[in-house]
Amino acid sequence: MTQQTDHEWSKGALFAKAQVFVESMSDNDDTEWKFGLWSSFALEMLVRSAVARVSPALLADTRDWTNVLYGLGLQPKKPKFVPKSAPITELLSRVEELVQEFTGEHANFCASHFARRNSEVHTGSYPFANVGTATWLPMFYSVCEVLLRSIGESLESLFGTEMAQRAKEDIDALRDETAKSVKGTINAHKTVWEQKTEDERITATSQAATASLRHYGHRVACPSCGSTALLNGKAAGEAKRTVDDDGIVERQVMKPESFSCVACGLKIAGFSKLLAADLGNNFISTSHYDAVEYFEVDIDERIRSMMEDDNNEY
Q: Global pTM?
């Protein structure tokens, strides 16, 4: 990374800091709490950068007017002066005034995301570990897109090409109003399920549990009947490999693409519909390989001896 010569409150310096935080964010799987924590740091830098685009002085904590001088690029005469910027809650109000596309919904999401960050940093709780990606990641990308556009940057310039593509898919899914029709499909299957006899439901639930093995997909509860069902998805980013006593462990973040329930027959295809059905959380597929066979084959061609997949690690 090149060294920044801009004012530390400048748009460029703050955007560069956001890029650094995104690098740390992308070092972790989407499902890890560190991924969420670093995302909150990056988002704050984008909010500050969007305010600084108009003037770094607008970042100043106005309870002391010498902070405004500092934001203007002047060095106050005040002894032992330490510049102080406004708290992020105040800056959210300012960016809402300065960026036309930045709405109250965006501001509310940011406030919630920063509240999780504060709880993560200042308490013994783990808020990012206890929340699925579907509840925040699509909106996070959507807010980033708005803020990036305001400072003349793009999703690619912040996240890189591959991650930006995944971000655009999440944003498109979030904006897909037609996907909400899936709730009608879910309710229709629920109605049919409730009309079955108790014995029929017990038998179907048992069959679903037997058929929904973890190496066939990620096991979740069906939103229509509550039986064990399967999510399947596509790889999101590069797989991470580690070595343990039994061989090679490969962990791959998966983005949901389809859902199927053997018990009630509900099927859902497409991430936007899965997101609307509260089934859009990314999941981890874990594969275990024999170390000798793993290193004897061409990894790039994926011709390996696979022992078993596990799609149910969070």
A: 0.82
